[in-house]
Task: structure prediction
Amino acid sequence: MPFISGFLEVACSPGSMLILTNAWKSLTRSLGRNLLLFLIVACIAGAASVALAIKSSASEAEESGRESLTITATIGLDRQKLMEDATSQTNTTDTAEGRPNFQGVFSSYPDLTLDELKTYAAKDSVQDFLYSGSISVDTTGDIEPVSTQSATSTGDSTASTDTSTDQFDPVNGFPGGSGGSGGNFGSGGPVSFGGRSMGDLQVTGYGSESAMTGFVSGTQSIVSGAMIDLMRADNECLISDEFAAYNSLSVGDTVTVANPAALEETYTVTIAGIYHDDQASAQSDGGMIFSTSQDSANRLIVSYPTLQSISDESQAQATTTTDQMGQEISTGLVATISSTYVFASPENYDTFTTQVREDGLGEAYSVTSTDLDSYQASLVPLNNLVSFANTLLLVVLGVGGVVLVAIAMLTIRERKYEVGVLTAIGISKPKVALQLVVEMFLVVVFGLVAGLGIGAAASVPVADHLLESQVAAQIAQEESVETNFGRPGGGIAASQGMPSMGGGGFSNVFGQNAVSYLDQINATLDWNVILHMAGIGLGLALVASLVSIVFVMRYEPLSILANRS
Amino acid sequence: MSILELNDVSYSYDGLKCVLTDLTWGFEESRLYAVTGRSGAGKTTLLSLLAGLTNPTGGAVLFNGHDLATLDRYRYRSHDVGVVFQSFNLLPHLTAVENVELGMRASGKRIDHRRDHAMALLDKVGLDESLATRRVLKLSGGEQQRVAIARALSYDPKVILADEPTGNLDLATQNDIVSMLGDLADEGKCVIVVTHSPEVVDCVDEVYRLKAEAVKPKKTRRRNQTAIEGSSGQPSDVES
Result:
């Protein structure tokens, strides 16, 4: 490329001062033209720097969000998949009712045991493993569960008020008969919920303090007594201050509970501490509670070994009967395990899902993480904003580039005479072209600096405004969908979390399942953006300069000056 | 020995329209030459060839015995030859003195106190300081003509080419300019003037005509004035 080497030679020659001097004079003496060029470059640079700042900050926000994100996941039976499999098999083996025997299918896949869950928890990818177990028990003696309802069931189910109406009673359970045992669901015996009896109280055993999410998050705190030892099966428990006050209990007292399916089977635990739960009253007031055991005030917290010993003892005394469907029902108390795996990053979660499959976790079980899904959903407005910024950047650079080239072409045609004069008096074409390039670069540099100033001032408010609009649009869209489904305003309210029934995991401490949109980014100009802008400016100046160079190299001084004459 | 020679030079535009045919002329230092001819005879084309702005289509233009076509013609134009164009060819966004300085810088020659030198040159051609610091667009045609002359002289070239240097000047100034060109020739430069002006023709050492007309100067600046005829490529202009 002799032309480039000629250019470099010229740039490094003593004549470079001539080029710089001429360029500066040309810039200062043709203010109108250069001011126009400067404004165009400044506008392009301003818009581009805002777009780049948005992209950069969005990327940073997403990255830092991912880094600080603690992923929780659970392993559970993939009922949907099993039902789909069962439905596909039913085509050939229809049951009498014309639908698959889902119950039978589900029962063939038992819940994973704690030992199995712990085996998976030993993986390197797992940061923490939280587990708890819970059993439902009945009260005995003078102890009563906390209830705000007027008709309170007693611990002894037979003592509850018989109702023979078919109206729904939120306390006494679904209609269906009289003589309901436990004062809850159904009639004629212990309320069965998922094949297990529902009592008045819930005994929850925790395997570690980190699993006690209420205490970790601060909604629960010890107000009297001491924390129990979670490693020992010492039959000590924590009770809520509401339960304690309701039954005039204090630290050191004992609480005797009974197996709802076998009331003669009792267990006694000693109160080691009393805790306050900020959310207990709110939950019991607002939600629809089918059983008093669902009220967090009626929860006895024990160590998991204590719970395990109660369960083991109950299993040892259990009797087994067969129901009408032919299924065996045991009176033994079985702990419902609730477990959650905690991961430091989404990558670890991905690794974990692969590892557990390699270790033989069947296809009937699935690993799910609601907070990862929530996090990804929370990025929707941000991703929309980045998409907008990308479009803005492309349009600005495309249009800006075309405008710059057009101006460069007009300018060089206007300066054809000047080129002719300079070459006629012996300034070589590479020098003349370099002078025009220097002028263009100077204008672009000034425009770039001004544009960066504009970008620095505008990027934060513009980005905030745009992101706010995106979030508002996303929320409006969800509300619209909810309204269409007859749930006015339900979109966000629903995502704020209903009290979960059953196990539920520990997601509330690591972020609720609700989609909380990422609505703050710090779209300031950083070095990354400035370097990008410098590159863009260099590119624009090169494109515009190329036009000048091509024209200058084509011009012949004699023809220019002859035409002029 | 001729510093500048036309050696059997021909020139045609686009290979068709023959403007100059087989010119063989020589130009020496310390002499003032006039090139005359009717309009369209090829005077400006001849000046362009001598200025190295273009190459002949036939023959060669020699500078100090070297074919200009083989030399760096940018260096030749900026260093060895000063050209006063008919339309001045000044840069309008610069002042008069800056135009003169531009010529100095373009030559690459080391010239101390450029501004002072440029001002002195402008003063020499009759432009005072107030005119020298004006943009050339604000100067009259005659003043621009002087600026162009000053620029051509600014880097002390060996050859001065001037295309109608007195075309825009009043008679008094014309005489000044001719006198100045004569002085330059006396200083050892080769001065070639393309002109229609009989007054200028009368004052030169030698006249080259692009027509085969006999030339008899009415008055001579030098005793040994001669007239040399050349032919243009246009048959109507050729006088043999």
About this structure: Confidence is low (pLDDT under 50) at residues 151-195, 490-514 of chain A.
